[in-house]
Design a protein that fits this description.
alpha+beta, rod-shaped, Alpha-Beta Plaits, 171 residues, five-stranded antiparallel β-sheet, 4 helices
Length: 171
C-alpha cells in the first residue's frame, strides 16, 4: 500500500497541539509539525527525532587517518631514500600529515552527515502551503490510503483552518 499525505493548517500552536491529541486518539499514522517559527522539541507531542550524526565524523576521521597513513607510507616506500642511516619510514613527519588527513576526513564526513541526516535535498514536499511561513502551523499526516478519511476527520475535529491533500488542492 502506498502512503498518502494530508496537511492540516492551524492558526495557533495551542490548536495544533490539541489536534495532535486527536490524531493520537484516532490512531492515525505518523505526523510531522511544519512551522516557520522555532518551537521547543516535543512542544506538539511529536516523536523525538533519532539521528546518527555523531557516527559520520568518527568514520571520516578513521578514513582520513588511514588514507593519510597509506599516502605517506606508500610515498616513502615507493621512493626509498636512505638519509644518514635513518629508517625509510619517518614517523614524526608522517604524524603531521596523518593529523591533517584525520581532521579533513572528519570535517568532510560531518558536512556529508548533516546533509544526509537532514534528508537534503528534498525533491518533493507534497502537500505544502506557503501560509506556514506566514505563521500558520501545519500538521503533515502520513498514513495509508484507507486511513486518509479518518485523518481528515481527525484534522477537522482538531479545528484545522484548511486541509490540503495535494499541492494547491484543498479538501
Amino acid at each position: 500500500m502506498a502512503n498518502k499525505n494530508v496537511l492540516g493548517l492551524f492558526s495557533d500552536a495551542e490548536t495544533a497541539a490539541d489536534a495532535t491529541d486527536v490524531l493520537k486518539e484516532k490512531g492515525v499514522g505518523d505526523y510531522d509539525v511544519l512551522t516557520g517559527s522555532p518551537y521547543p522539541e516535543g512542544a506538539f507531542g511529536e516523536k523525538t527525532p533519532v539521528h546518527h550524526v555523531y557516527v559520520f565524523p568518527i568514520v571520516g576521521a578513521l578514513m582520513g587517518l588511514t588514507i593519510a597513513f597509506l599516502l605517506t607510507a606508500g610515498t616513502q616506500l615507493a621512493y626509498p631514500m636512505v638519509t644518514g642511516g635513518k629508517p625509510i619510514l619517518a614517523f614524526p613527519a608522517m604524524l603531521i600529515i596523518s593529523y591533517e588527513g584525520t581532521l579533513l576526513g572528519a570535517v568532510l564526513f560531518t558536512i556529508f552527515g548533516i546533509i544526509f541526516e537532514s534528508r537534503l535535498p528534498r525533491l518533493r514536499l507534497d502537500p505544502y502551503d506557503p501560509r506556514i511561513t506566514e505563521g500558520y502551523i501545519g500538521l503533515l499526516v502520513t498514513c495509508e490510503e484507507e486511513q486518509l478519511d479518518t485523518a481528515e476527520q481527525a484534522l477537522r475535529q482538531g479545528k484545522a483552518v484548511d486541509i490540503i491533500h495535494e499541492r494547491g488542492r484543498q479538501a
